[in-house]
Amino acid sequence: MITVNSLTKSYGEITVLNIDQLEIPKGQCFGLVGNNGAGKTTFFSLLLDLIKTSTGEIISNDIAVAQSEEWKSFTSAFIDDSFLIGYLTPEEYFYFVGELRGIDKAAVDLFLETYVDFFNDEILNQKKYLRDFSKGNQKKVGLIATFIGSPKVVILDEPFANLDPTTQIRLKQLIKAETEKRELTLLISSHDLNHVTDVCNRIVLLERGAVIMDKETTAKTLQELEDYFSA
Amino acid sequence: MPTSLFQLSRKKFMRAPQLEAKLAIKILMGFVVLYFGGSLLFAGIAVYPFLSDLLPERDAISVINSVLVLIFILELIIRYFLQQLPVTEIKSFLLLSIPKKRIIRNVLFRSLLSVYNAIPVLFYLPISISMFQDDYALGQVIAWWVAVTAFSLCLNFISFLANKNNKALAGFVILIILLYLSESYMDFETLRAVGYFFDALIMQPLWVLVPLGVFVLLYQITFSFLKKNLNLEGSLAAKKEVANAGRYDFLDVFGSHAFFLKNDLRLIVRNVRPKNIVLMSFLFLFYGLFFFTQDNQPESLLVFASIFISGGFLLTYGNYVPAWDSEYYAFLMTQNLSYKKYLDSKWRLMTFAVIVSTVLSLPYLYFGVKTYLMILSGAAFNIGLGTWITLYGGLLNKQPLKLNVKAKAFENTQAFSGKLMLMIFPKMVLPVLLYIIPATLFNPTAGYITLAASGVLGIVFKNQILTQMVKLFAKQKHEMLQAFTQK
């Protein structure tokens, strides 16, 4: 689904990301871990053409993301709160995203019904603008909105951060359900090794912009990661 | 004065995105300042001898004194609209151990360093020198100059207060209107009193203590105003507003672009800053009253007025068009939304606004069908070309905008700035040229037809223009994303 060829990103002399070759097959749940400054968000930003590549290219479903904007029709992402529109209510935001992906209001309402548990009565019908919600609730809205219109590729940057424990667990169930339901290529970055090894079937470890480890998730993966990070 | 705070503002400028563009604008502004400064200096040197020759039976300084109040009011208006206030990143200093007083003193002191405060030196000092040469005593001359300067600096604080506080602004406007009314309808000599005061001051230089006192008082008021507001929103508890449920279904007539228009409408209605700016664009509707009510206006001025009447929204809101979306720009750039559709929807928004303004300007029919046809040709230009020029300017503007500014006292809430004026320039000159050239070659009607035809051409070639804009937009995308994430 996604192919990365000799990708680098540098700012002046400093190279912040250098991935020679990476292939993410269709339907994979891809977990990205690494300390701050490892290049996780840089990689996602490059995938979404939010920053320019220094060399190399990213091809998503046969489309070079830097050349054409066609990838937008099957990709969705939630990187940070700049992905929310503060002056809308959650409903209006969902409808807005739905409209952009060709889903009408009734279908969006139907879609939202399946996430009632996840929202925990704190999101819908609150008569509040998104800017007045807490960080955690804002994040719930942003995360759910990425699944509207069944995009083939979903990119989530640190989805577990800022969420309360209950919601973290519900998010894991939700992700598992989504990936089982259809052929979804899901890219997640996280500092929570527990969660990320739980939901992802492949883990890539970045350090200073380079891939250090790239493995299918097994029962031992969590231990290996913990060993790496405590060393 | 605390030098470290000055260094921070210097760094803010040097490290800003688009330094080159900013420098170019600064240099251009420099020429503008030089020009106006030179004119002021010339006026200051020439006015006294000129008045002495023109009205030998009266004291030149007394004539100057009698119009000082008008100069002050004009100066206040200019300062209010154009003077940029020194905006320090106050929030980040609040928790540091810098005494509040020092932060405020820095802001106020820097506001005194503004170029607008060169007026006393450039304009009033040469007058004082002329007075001295005209055999006034040194004490009288100094008292006069100090008094005028103190008033001019008072205006500095008044414009500061009016900019930060809408109640203060309303207060000043009402005061000036009342003074004017009492002067012209009730035989009170309120405005003229300023002139008498300065006459008396020359007789008795001790009166200089009054303007100095006013200056100190205004400094104190400004100081305590800032001190009172120098915290995060008064209290830290976030105020929750109830969302308004406006659905704006009437916009559905716009088909597939309707939901964009709805969103832009929500943006305007629910955020402090765009709301104020759009309210201001309504004032442009009345612009024509200044021109159409007077006889023998040159036609090129009337073209100006027609452009303003239907183009208020373009001049106020339109100038910042992609920047209004800067808070969630990354989101828009990753959604299933082509550049073309995005720009097209913005074009439609502006066109919609021009059409609304044109309909609202129907009362101008009172001045005759010809006047309204002028407005219509101006509207055609605004739709066909004005919108694109505005969008082009907006794409070059890479300043992010905070939509719902609440910490008002420390944000630049002015809608106009010198820089913006420079961007408006081509939008104003082009239509006048389009009118003047055929109008002088043939007749005024040909001018209006050309103006309207240019707009129609813009509409006919809309797709071609749009394609070019998309190319520019795509080229600018990463730069804009980077600039918009700078806080």
Overview of the structural elements:
The complex is a heterodimer of chains A (231) and B (487). Chain A has eight helices and ten strands. Chain A is α/β, with parallel strands linked by helices. Chain A has a domain at 2-83 and 153-230: Rossmann fold. In chain A, β4 (55-60) and β5 form a beta hairpin. Chain A is globular and about 50 Å long. Chain B is an all-alpha fold. Chain B folds into two domains: 18-229, no CATH class; 249-485, no CATH class. In chain B, α2 runs antiparallel to α3, α7 (138-164) runs parallel beside α10 (209-229) and α17 (339-360) runs antiparallel to α18. The longest helix of chain B has 36 residues, at 19-54. Residues 233-239 and 406-417 of chain B have low confidence and may be disordered.
Structural class of chain B: mainly alpha
Gyration radius from CA atoms of chain B, angstroms: 26 Å
Measured by DSSP, the beta-strand proportion of chain A falls in: 25-35%
CATH homology group of the domain at 2-83 and 153-230 in chain A: P-loop containing nucleotide triphosphate hydrolases
* Mean pLDDT score of chain A: 92
Straight-line N-to-C gap of chain B: 27 Å
Number of domains of chain B: 2
Kindly provide the radius of gyration of chain A, computed on alpha-carbon positions and rounded to a whole number of angstroms: 18 Å
Order of helices and strands of chain B: HHHHHHHHHHHHHHHHHHHHH
CATH class division of the domain at 2-83 and 153-230 in chain A: Alpha Beta
Stretches of chain B where pLDDT is under 50 for at least 5 consecutive residues are 233-239, 406-417
